[in-house]
Write a structure and sequence with these properties.
It contains two helices and three strands. It is an alpha+beta fold. The chain has a domain of 85 residues.
Length: 130
């Protein structure tokens, strides 16, 4: 099982803090410009955090899709016949931190004549119809 958020935060706290300080210096090397309010600074910091979060999600989903594409599709969940590897399809999901995109391999059941998308990342997941 993977690491939970608290474990990751603890493990990477120093590294993330250093990254945040470096990024802050790049954004405002001479300090806050005149007229930038605390609310403005908070909005910028949240946007940076959201982009980092979105990028982590997208990177992991793309990686999962690449690994899934290396395995044969398995059996049709409806009739039990072997699925045939299909085409690549672009996917897009809007998360609470912004949109993420990836490409995944679809499958096709010649008996049912239905297309299936790869499963959601979870143990024992089966293929499902798009």
């Amino acid at each position: 099982m993977g690491k939970d958020a608290a474990a990751i935060r603890g493990e990477f706290q120093a590294r993330l803090g250093q990254f945040a300080r470096e990024l802050s210096h790049e954004l405002y090397p001479d300090g806050l410009p005149e007229g930038v309010s605390f609310a403005d600074l908070e909005d910028i910091a949240c946007a940076v955090g959201d982009e980092i979060s979105r990028e982590v999600i997208e990177t992991q989903i793309r990686r999962h899709a690449e690994v899934s594409a290396e395995h044969p599709p398995g059996l049709c969940p409806a009739c039990g016949e072997p699925l045939q590897s299909g085409w690549l399809q672009d996917r897009r999901l809007t998360t609470t931190r912004g949109p993420v995109t990836w490409t995944e391999k679809a499958a096709y059941c010649p008996r049912c004549r239905r297309a299936f998308s790869p499963p959601e990342p979870s143990p024992g997941a089966r293929w499902h119809e798009p």
